[in-house]
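agent> call fold_tool(seq_1)
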Amino acid sequence: MAPALLLIPAALASFILAFGTGVEFVRFTSLRPLLGGAPEPGGPGEPAGPRTSSGTGDARQGWLAAVQDRSILVPLAWDLGLLLLFVGQHSLMATEIVKAWMSRYFGVLQRSLYVACTALALQLVMRYWEPVPRGPVLWEARAEPWATWVPLLCFVLHVISWLLIFSILLVFDYAELMGLKQVYYHVLGLGEPLALKSPRALRLFSHLRHPVCVELLMVLWVVPTLGTDRLLLALLLTLYLGLAHGLDQQDLRYLRAQLQRKLHLLSRPQEGEAE
């Protein structure tokens, strides 16, 4: 019982950390840009900018002026460093050499440790991210009726994207992705969960590291205002997700079959009640 008393709390702690980080990531990528928005130029702590014809402040720099403005370049460099730290951690710990080393020293907690380190790296990105309110924007919905309808449309698309993400994670076995299932199987003496999976599932897991690429891209790019720091976040994560994405037709057929099986299992109690 001694190993179980140590393994189970460690796996649960990693799971709670990852779950909380996921909730915070939803707020960081969706709620803040859609509901809170970026800091307004000319607001507290910002110099009053020149007035546009509509009478609103507009202290944002142009693209050419931005590349010479240290107040824009410095926070962008800081944000880039945070993103590279996250990408580096996420990629390095996913290599076979590092996974083998972690399995040797941490055993069944290898996946939980990877998940915990990823959550901590993402926490660093979110907590120390530097907005660039005076930077140029790629697009911005300011005039009516776009200022009303575009944020609403973006909100709906974000909600749909997150619902799809959560559904896909369930199809992919969320407990196993978070490292909980590995510890559970180990404590009960059932072996490695992957050893019980079909060859199609093993093939899918061997080359697909990010099952929610399309939905995350929707979240990253579909915003009412695409400012400089958000553009940096979207570009770098899009490049990273694109390089790590490896779905093909065989994988899609397997995922479709898995989804149908899980929907059938969910509908069985209802069928029993109807009878």
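agent> call fold_tool(seq_2)
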Amino acid sequence: MPPPEHRPEAPKSVLARGLRLLDAFGATDGELSLSVLAERTGLPKPTAHRLLNELVAWGGLERTSGGYRLGIGLFVLGQRVPRHRALREAALPYMEDLYEATHENIHLAVPSDTDTLFLEKVNGRRSTPIVSRVGGRLPAHCTATGKVFLAYGTPDRMRQVCEAGLARLTPRTVIMPGLLRQEVARARERGYGLNREEAEVGVSAVAAPVFDRRRTVIAAISVTGWARDLELERLAPAVRTAAMALSRELARDGT
């Protein structure tokens, strides 16, 4: 257990404490024990245990033999978010068309602070096995979708990403702010972003922007697969066509 000075300070309100327990689950955490949850949140074990029981009763968590895991109640609640639900429903036909053409992983992502958040994913048995999952996130600086958001975003977004630190995920991750700005400028010129084994060794991607009716980038569609198999520049027109078709539908429907 970390020394007291390194533990997070527990929030005061009951609501904030409950939310902190939910937020303690990382992208790869299947289940967490009471001890780990108390350590990550800075809550005393008795307090954490009481709140965990209330979250289980509500359906936000499920009890397991080793502790707790996120529950179906959170999934149901997430499906009620109107903006993202409408975006996913509109995007799925275009994503499925891209999958039929490539048999690779097709992502719909949205910007989230300094990350790219995967809102939907279409894949199959022939798709490259990769780390991404719906609800997961990766740093913007090393993903094709993230570079799209930086290319069409405000200077503040680029500044925030650079100030957060350009973590090296693979030997090919761009970690110099100047080089990242050059790569993002090229993405804006081309109309699509590229990731060449920058987030996962052996895996590359190409992504194109999705605009709303005000021509603001709200999402990106990407194709991701083995670097040795994907011809990114050849795939780029198909990805851009799907993204532009979705943009037109969103503008027409006022979504």
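agent> summarizing second result for user.
The chain has two domains: 4-77, 81-253. The beta strands are 61-64, 67-70, 105-112, 115-122, 137-139, 193-196, 203-211, 217-226.
agent> awaiting next instruction.
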